[in-house]
C-alpha cells in the first residue's frame, strides 16, 4: 500500500498542473483594490474645508505627511502580497521551506519602529499645540457647556470674571441653563448664548464642560476635536484667521438627540464683536 501511494504521488508530481484560477483572481483583486484606494485619495474626492488657524495648517501638513508615508508602505506591501500570491501559487511543484532571514526581519522591525514612533512624535506636536501649551496671554476666555443636546456659551462680560454656578439653580425652561447664581456680583454681566461668536485674529481660550454625559466640541475648519467630560474643565485654544460661519458639532454618541446636537461658530471683525457683546448684554 505504502509503495503504491508513493508511486501515485510521484506520478502526480510529474504531471503538468496548471493550478486553480483562484490565486490569479486574488492577486488581480488586490491590484484593483490598491488602484481604487490610491485613486480615491489622489483625486481628493472628499476634501476637507480649508483650515482657518495656523495650528490647523500644521495639522493638515502632519496628516498629509502621515498619509504619504503610510500610503507608500501600503501600496508596496499590497503589491508585494499580490506578487507573492501570483508567483508562488500552487502548480503542483514541491513546496520549499525557508527559515527567513534574521538580518532582514530585524531591519523591517527597526524601520517600522523608526517610522511610526517618528510620525507619532511629530503628530503629537501638532495635536498638543492647542491643548498642552498654555493659551497666549490676553486670550479671550469663553466657557462652553454641553448637555443633552445643546451647546451653551458663556462670556464673562465687561468685568472679565465668570460668576458663580450652582447646579441646584440649573433650569433651562426658565432661561438659566447653566445655573448662574445671580446673587454673585460677578454673575450680573455674564452673557449666555446658544452659539459662539469670536473676533477674528484674537486668541480664544475655550473652557469645555459637560452637565451630563461625554459630549464633544468639533469644528472642522479649526481642525479641533475635543471631548467635554462631566466633572472636568478642559481648556482648548485657537486663533481664527478668517471670518465666517462654521458648524460646531458634537461627535460623541451622547443619546437619542445626538444627531441634532450642533451649533455655530461665528468669526467676526473686532467691531462686529463689540456690537455682539452690546446686543447680548443682559439687562439685570
Ligand atoms: Cu452631545 Cu452627541
Summary of the model, kept short:
With 284 residues, the chain is of the alpha+beta class. It has helices spanning 2-14, 22-42, 54-87, 102-128, 270-280; strands at residues 140-147, 150-155, 191-193, 196-199, 204-210, 215-219, 224-228, 234-238, 244-249, 262-268. Helices cover 37% and strands 20% of the residues.
Topology record:
Layout: H1 2-14, H2 22-42, H3 54-87, H4 102-128, E1 140-147, E2 150-155, E3 191-193, E4 196-199, E5 204-210, E6 215-219, E7 224-228, E8 234-238, E9 244-249, E10 262-268, H5 270-280
Parallel strand pairs: 1-5, 4-10
Antiparallel strand pairs: 1-2, 2-3, 5-8, 6-7, 9-10
Helix pairs in contact: 2-3, 3-4
The structure holds dinuclear copper ion.
Dinuclear copper ion binds next to loops.
Describe this protein with a few key phrases.
10 strands, Immunoglobulin-like, alpha+beta, binds dinuclear copper ion, 5-stranded mixed beta sheet, 37% helix, 284 residues, 2 domains, 5 helices, 3-stranded mixed beta sheet
> Tally of extended strands?
10
By CATH reckoning, the class of the largest domain would read: Mainly Beta
Look up the CATH topology of the largest domain.
Answer: Immunoglobulin-like
Q: H/E element string?
A: HHHHEEEEEEEEEEH
Strand order within the widest beta sheet: 3-2-1-5-8
Oligomer: single chain
Give the CA-CA distance, first to last residue.
103 Å
Query: At the fourth CATH level, what is the homologous superfamily of the largest domain?
Result: Cupredoxins -  blue copper proteins
Question: How would a crystallographer describe the biggest sheet?
Answer: 5 strands, mixed
Cofactors, ions, other ligands: dinuclear copper ion
Q: Name the overall outline.
A: elongated
Amino acid at each position: 500500500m505504502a509503495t503504491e501511494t508513493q508511486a501515485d504521488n510521484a506520478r502526480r508530481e510529474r504531471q503538468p498542473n496548471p493550478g486553480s484560477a483562484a490565486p490569479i483572481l486574488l492577486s488581480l483583486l488586490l491590484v484593483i483594490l490598491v488602484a481604487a484606494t490610491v485613486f480615491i485619495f489622489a483625486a481628493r474626492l472628499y476634501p476637507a474645508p480649508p483650515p482657518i488657524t495656523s495650528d490647523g495648517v500644521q495639522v493638515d501638513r502632519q496628516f498629509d505627511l502621515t498619509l504619504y508615508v503610510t500610503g507608500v508602505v501600503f501600496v508596496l506591501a499590497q503589491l508585494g502580497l499580490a506578487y507573492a500570491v501570483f508567483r508562488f501559487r500552487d502548480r503542483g511543484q514541491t513546496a520549499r521551506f525557508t527559515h527567513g532571514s534574521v538580518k532582514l526581519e530585524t531591519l523591517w522591525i527597526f524601520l517600522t519602529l523608526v517610522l511610526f514612533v517618528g510620525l507619532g512624535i511629530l503628530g503629537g506636536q501638532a495635536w498638543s499645540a492647542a491643548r498642552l501649551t498654555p493659551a497666549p496671554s490676553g486670550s479671550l476666555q469663553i466657557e462652553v457647556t454641553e448637555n443633552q443636546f445643546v451647546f451653551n456659551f458663556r462670556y464673562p462680560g465687561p468685568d472679565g470674571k465668570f460668576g458663580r454656578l450652582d447646579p441646584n439653580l440649573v433650569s433651562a425652561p426658565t432661561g438659566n441653563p447653566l445655573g448662574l447664581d445671580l446673587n454673585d456680583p460677578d454673575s450680573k454681566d455674564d452673557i449666555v448664548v446658544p452659539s459662539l461668536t469670536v473676533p477674528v485674529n484674537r486668541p480664544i481660550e475655550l473652557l469645555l464642560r459637560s452637565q451630563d454625559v461625554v459630549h464633544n466640541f468639533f469644528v472642522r475648519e479649526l481642525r479641533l476635536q475635543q471631548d467635554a467630560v462631566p466633572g472636568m474643565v478642559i481648556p482648548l485654544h485657537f486663533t481664527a484667521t478668517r471670518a465666517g460661519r462654521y458648524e460646531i458639532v458634537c461627535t460623541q454618541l451622547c443619546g437619542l438627540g445626538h444627531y441634532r446636537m450642533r451649533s455655530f461658530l461665528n468669526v467676526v471683525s473686532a467691531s462686529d464683536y463689540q456690537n455682539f457683546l452690546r446686543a447680548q448684554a443682559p439687562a439685570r
